[in-house]
Structure formats: structure tokens, C-alpha cells
Design goal:
The chain is of the alpha/beta class and 126 residues long. It contains 6 helices and 4 strands, in the order E-H-H-E-H-H-E-H-H-E.
């Protein structure tokens, strides 16, 4: 299974936060799972850190690498697909994750209740 983590899921994993659902924790920890982190997630974290609105690891890329997570670049096709999505969600970072998961056939992990409105594979968390 190949998973794409939403920003909050990544941060909860890195901080061992109890908010991370058990199903997500188990899927991420499984040796059979490939875990991907979008460049959009790193960008979102960096922007919010710079604005003082988010407490996240200063060494984010090292933390991602230490967990054997792969990074997923943003392509022009991803950008076009994100813009073409129905307007269920206005957050551009989340729209990008949805577009990437769809294009790359990834299972997305998020607790965002707007994600199921899209035709995207989601990890069941309940």
C-alpha cells in the first residue's frame, strides 16, 4: 500500500500525538507500506512556521527521511488537476493532496471531513 499523508497526520506522527487515529498509526508503521509526503505539505508547514502559526520540527526534511518516508514532487499535471477539482474544499494545499493521490493512485490519510466528497481513495479511520 502507498499512503499520502495530510499535514496534520504527518505532524501527529512525528510528535507521537494521541490524536493520530490507531488505523493511521498502524498503516504508517507497517513495513509493507510506502509513505509519501507531498512537497505541498512541506510548503504548507514552512509557510505556517514562518508566520508563527505552527509548531513543527525545524528539521522537517530530516524527520521525513529518518522515518523512511518518500517525498512527492508537484507536477504541472497535479496543479491542473487540483484546479479542476469541484469546490468542496478551498484550501489549495488540501486540493493538491487530493489531486496527487488521485493521479498517483495513492491512499490519502486525513481526518478532514471534506475529503470524502472527492473521488479519492481514503484510509478508513473509524
Amino acid at each position: 500500500m502507498s499512503l499520502l499523508l495530510d499535514t496534520h497526520i504527518l505532524l501527529w506522527w512525528l510528535s507521537d500525538d494521541s490524536l493520530l487515529p490507531t488505523a493511521a498509526r498502524e498503516a504508517i508503521a507497517s513495513p509493507q507500506t510506502e509513505v509519501l509526503i507531498s512537497a505541498a505539505t512541506a510548503w504548507e508547514i514552512a509557510i505556517k512556521q514562518a508566520a508563527g502559526r505552527l509548531d513543527a520540527p525545524e528539521d522537517l526534511l530530516e524527520a521525513v527521511e529518518a522515518n523512511d518516508f518518500q517525498t512527492l514532487t508537484i507536477t504541472a499535471a497535479h496543479a491542473v488537476d487540483a484546479a479542476a477539482l469541484p469546490p468542496h474544499h478551498s484550501d489549495p494545499f488540501d486540493r493538491m493532496l487530493i489531486a496527487q493521490a488521485r493521479a498517483e493512485t495513492l491512499t490519502l490519510i486525513s481526518v478532514d471531513n471534506r475529503f470524502p466528497k472527492y473521488d479519492v481513495e481514503l484510509l478508513a479511520l473509524s
